[in-house]
């Protein structure tokens, strides 16, 4: 009997990463002029991620049960769904690997270049674009610039500059 599927693997990875991020946010320095402190936003985001992961995990277990039937014990209708679920794990692995690679190169290449590259690789790796390279480039650059200006100018946070 199998206990795992793509949704459960994704939730477990999200819970593990959230716990690491929360632990790292505990060591952020507190400045007297900021009533919430630098750690407030990272803690808030990790708590939201944990709630979402637990929510997805709960409903997946509620829908499919704790134990998943092996493919050979399912009815024909269920076999097609099981094969779909098994193929859905590849995007989870791809996205998880992309995040790890992104976090490794972020300090070396800088926020702007590595984020644009990460978004482009993710868009094409997950086959999310229907209109081609132009739309993906515009989305990647636009998203990166908007996030940069919000966090840099409004929230006054410093991003890794890297070699660029």
Features:
164 residues, mainly alpha, 6 helices
Portion of residues in beta strands equals under 5%
Radius of gyration: 20 Å
Unreliable segments of 5+ consecutive residues: none
Please bin the fraction of helical residues. over 70%
> What does the main sheet amount to?
none
Mean pLDDT: 76
**SSE pattern, N- to C-terminal:** HHHHHH
Q: What is the terminal separation in angstroms?
A: 51 Å
| Number of continuous helical runs | 6
Count the E strands: 0
What does the overall shape look like?
globular
* Overall SS class: mainly alpha
The oligomerization state is single chain
Q: How would you characterize the overall build of this protein?
A:
The chain is mainly α. It has helices spanning 6-25, 40-64, 76-87, 89-109, 111-125, 133-154. The longest helix is centred in the first third of the chain and has 25 residues, at 40-64. The mean pLDDT is 76.
Topology record:
Blueprint (H helix, E strand, L loop, with lengths): L5 H20 L14 H25 L11 H12 L1 H21 L1 H15 L7 H22 L10
Summary, kept brief:
With 164 residues, this protein is mostly helical. The chain is 70% helix and 0% strand. It is built from six helices and no strands.
């Amino acid at each position: 009997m199998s206990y795992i599927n793509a949704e459960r693997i994704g939730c477990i990875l999200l819970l593990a990463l959230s716990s690491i991020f929360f632990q790292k946010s505990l060591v952020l320095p507190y400045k007297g002029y900021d009533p919430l402190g630098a750690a407030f936003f990272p803690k808030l985001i990790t708590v939201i991620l944990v709630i979402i992961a637990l929510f997805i995990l709960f409903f997946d277990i509620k829908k499919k049960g704790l134990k998943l039937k092996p493919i050979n014990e399912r009815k024909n209708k269920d076999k097609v769904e099981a094969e779909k679920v098994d193929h859905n794990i590849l995007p989870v692995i791809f996205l998880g690997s992309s995040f790890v690679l992104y976090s490794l190169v972020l300090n070396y290449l800088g926020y702007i270049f590595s984020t644009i590259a990460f978004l482009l690789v993710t868009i094409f790796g997950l086959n999310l674009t229907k209109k081609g390279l132009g739309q993906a480039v515009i989305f990647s650059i636009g998203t990166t610039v908007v996030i940069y200006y919000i966090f840099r100018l409004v929230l006054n946070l410093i991003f890794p500059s890297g070699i660029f």
